Amino acid sequence: MNNNLKFCREELEMTQKELGNVFGVSFKTVAGWENSHDTMPLTKLVKFCNLYKFSIDYVTGLSKVNNYVELDKLDRVKIGNKLKRIRQKLGLTQETIASECMISQATYSGYENGKYLITSLCLYTICYSHKISMNDILKK
After folding, report:
1. How far apart are CA 15 and CA 26, in angstroms?
2. Residue 118: CA atoms inside 13 Å, Cβ hemisphere, count?
3. Which end of the chain, N or C, is surrounded by fewer C-beta atoms within 10 Å?
4. Secondary structure, 3-state, 36-71
């Protein structure tokens, strides 16, 4: 992910420790997210975007412009249905998308079927690869 989390945090004049306190994690965890050593969980990423009025596409580097849109409470079934429609519209198989995300087809199927909430990295990979907005998948 080409993430702008550090830039956004600094724009808010927050330290890594302060942001960590918002999410109940250590400053080292925040540093890992900012340096792309780890990926911010989707629930925390959406919370960050909604709390501080940043577009998820902007924070993840999918867009250079902060066009903030309030994001829905994450409903894994609703998100899964959107992912399935997008995949079908692109004419791709679950195996193809799973391969792009470097996960098993069974795991990806679980995302589409709403069994699991898709990870932020997998969602980013799909959006980046196919020029799709994360905002469009997650917005109200």
Report:
1. 11
2. 30
3. C
4. CCCCCCHHHHHHHHHHHCCCHHHHCCCCCCCCCCCE
Distance in angstroms (rounded) separating the CA atoms of residues 120 and 131: 16
Q: Compute the CA torsion angle 71, 74, 76, 82 (nearest 10 deg).
A: 0
Report the 10 Å Cβ neighbour count for 131.
7
Q: Is the dihedral of CA 9, 15, 20, 22 positive or negative?
A: negative
Q: How far apart are CA 132 and CA 130, in angstroms?
A: 6
What 3-state DSSP class applies to 139? strand
Locate all alpha helices (DSSP H) within 1-140, ordered by sequence.
5-11, 16-23, 27-34, 42-52, 56-59, 76-90, 94-101, 105-112, 120-130, 134-138
Q: Kindly report the pTM of this predicted structure.
A: 0.92
Residue 2 pLDDT = 61
Mean pLDDT by 10 residues, the chain (140 residues): 85 96 96 91 95 96 93 93 97 98 98 97 96 91
